[in-house]
């Protein structure tokens, strides 16, 4: 083991056997010592859930002489980061990377994203962190095209040091490598999901619902992640976990709270 | 039905049968037409999870002539708000209130909170929203003491209109009504949980873990929610769901992304 190598923790929300995480393992292994702790099943849409009312299991998947230590965990991405840092890793990692998610985590999707919750959990624990997502929901999505960019972004973050309490939300357009125009630092587009509930009946006649929806982006700003992705760029949104709406405090302080 | 009454949606994360939500129903019924859609089981720590890989069930609990329409839903608090707005309510509610949570959602807890995810989901959908939490985990916590404050905050929000894309995170100290010093607009304290994993063995000898931890607040600012709560005040943090760390964009734009 080269002592000068950085130590990188890898997690995701699609589960330890997803192709996206294997791409991350391949890229990170070239530049760092790597430990993987990822969910044992898909955890998409889990937001920043943690498991306190159920037990957690941790299973070592890698063999004794494998170059990368790989564990699966029965919990959420946030659980995976917590248990990795406290029970698996010998020292605090230099970086945590999460993904590569099969599907977008741009705009408001960051709120629902298990991938980003893994990265944000690391950020809360004082570990620099990046979440990576590719705009392709296909299980067999082509992650080869974006490998050089994943490497570039990771090396830049390791060298320049991320700002304190800031996590990167990186989304890749579904394009060939040579079609990608470059990387843009963006803000989160103001968008939402217009839900559609599909009402069906069980064979026994009981109503049930499937949640789905259409993504609605009414924010056409050219500084948004949606604009970047729609115009051939990789979007990077710096994300914070201090949710305070500082711009609103003055107005709220003018209300009659204590009369 | 009085047509001038506002329409309020109530949800929570402790489940439809929790004492905390009954307090909200009692207070809101005095000032509004009320619809309740809440999880059919506790959903604490669920963060902003949504259910897209499983079916959702919606059960009407209230009887035909009950003054309040009450449903339980098999999903998360965010699911409850989505299904309430799309499948239950005849029009968009004037306000969504979530809670009253049995336990704190101050500081970084807002990220893990199912209660706040219900309120934030409403905010994303353009509905003014407030999450209420009492710093008492006891199922039999005394919610009577804080009723007048819940009413006051709700009426103020209905009258003055909340700032756009801002949701209120309200936390109450565990005090008698007359001991509470007042209401303070605060920022989220910079704090974290120092995890403790309790490692045990199943009867069959397999290791498993319980996640618990100690809350560590290193932020002693007198403008924080933690300071307010520790000094006898009700804390209100305005919360946003645009997670962009705008202060970090300048620094990130100085990096060599496209070389």
UniProtKB/TrEMBL annotation, chains A, B:
Nucleotidase that shows phosphatase activity on nucleoside 5'-monophosphates. GO terms for cellular component: cytoplasm. Residues 8-195 form the Survival protein SurE-like phosphatase/nucleotidase domain. Belongs to the SurE nucleotidase family. The gene is surE. Its EC number is 3.1.3.5. Its main location: cytoplasm. It comes from Flavobacterium seoulense. GO terms for molecular function: 5'-nucleotidase activity; metal ion binding; nucleotide binding. This is 5'-nucleotidase SurE.
